[in-house]
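I have been asked to look over a protein record a colleague put together. Thanks in advance; the entry in question is below.
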Amino acid sequence: MTATPIKRFSEFNTSETANTDILSSDISPLTAPSYLRIYATFDTSGVLSLQRTNGGTTVAEQLNGGNALSANCAYVFDVITDDSETYNLQYSADATALKLIILEIDRGI
């Protein structure tokens, strides 16, 4: 069986406030484990962080090795999901998300 991507979030040319959740509500995986594939391009350099919440505790995981994303460049990240966790994103700078899309990809079993 082939893994099936499901669009969970998408925005184009949208202003983002630094260090604030980008998604209006956290993503709960439809199946776990699965992958969240994140495609991100911002007009301003900054660090993109995944906000992983489990049991009311949130930890920030900096993507791209904690290095700033270059302005106007595209990046793709895969995040493994787990049971009882939800996910959001934050960006370290005020910026415009030129394109931000999150797909959930099931295991394809």
In short: The longest strand covers residues 5-16.
